[in-house]
Write a structure and sequence with these properties.
DNA-binding, 3-stranded mixed sheet, alpha+beta, homodimer, 5 strands
DNA sequence: TTGTGTGCAAAATCTTTGCACTTCG
DNA sequence: CGAAGTGCAAAGATTTTGCACACAA
């Protein structure tokens, strides 16, 4: 499971330094139920590191994305939000009205992926699937 | 099938005026094999209406999207490109090594989507699916 | 101590808005 | 002719860069 400590540990192992601003961004992401723009991540992060700048948030989100701990969330008209990503397999379902984000697992694409693989000659290693719709309260 | 004339006709029926700049943007989109940023759409459109401005391209892309004749294309780090909706429902398969991109159609997620919908209470309206792997020459 | 990481300010992009002029219908 | 549409310039928003200073390791 994803926790501040496990992320910090991985960063450290990979040679990155553990700083107050980085911890603040990580915490902000983890406590976020939905997904947030960099600016919004910063607002949250400020609770843990009042001086954190937007630039650092951008850089940290980049880093976390590369490490697989955060993911850019794509919705129909916006791809500027980020959410914490469990390293394992999961997807996001986003409400287009209020932005509420739910993670779910257990997508079964295997047969479909086999077909695409056969048709294209690619070895498929990864897939990104995002769903968008209306949550129950926005319907 | 999508053609300049059929789009123009629909716009007209819906009460929009048929102008040179709009035709130019439509033609630019239709002849585009892939997808393009607004700036790039404008470059192409200039062949048909040299004076067309970026602002008009933005507004026209908006209009066409609303009408369902254009679609915003999402890739991992960019969701600012547009393509004619002509190309229908499709997804991208990208090689992580060399970046070669293939489009494919015919994903069948319906049963899966029903399940997620039941579990979450969301009405699912849209999905974004991207595959990543190794193309045949990179394997 | 040392070099990675940070914040600030400024630059570079990208997108939207206000407004007077054009032009379709 | 009248209102919708256009281009320009300017404003807004978002993201990146350069640089001197701070601070993990």
């Amino acid at each position: 499971m994803l926790s501040e400590e496990s992320i910090v540990q991985q960063l450290s192992i990979s040679g990155y330094r553990i700083t107050r601003p980085r911890r603040a961004v990580i915490r902000a992401l983890l406590e976020d139920e939905g997904y947030s723009s960099p600016a919004r991540v910063r607002e949250r992060a400020r609770r843990y590191c009042a001086s954190v700048g937007l630039v650092t948030v951008y850089r940290t989100l980049d880093l976390l994305s590369q490490m697989g701990f955060a993911r850019r969330i794509h919705t129909e008209n916006d791809c500027h939000g980020y959410a914490a990503a469990n390293h394992g397999h999961h997807h996001h379902l986003v409400c287009r009205q209020c932005g509420a984000t739910v993670e779910f697992k257990g997508c079964d694409l295997s047969r479909f992926l086999v077909r695409v693989s056969e048709e294209t000659g690619y070895v498929i290693e990864n897939h990104l699937l995002e769903l968008e719709g209306l949550c129950s309260s926005c319907q």
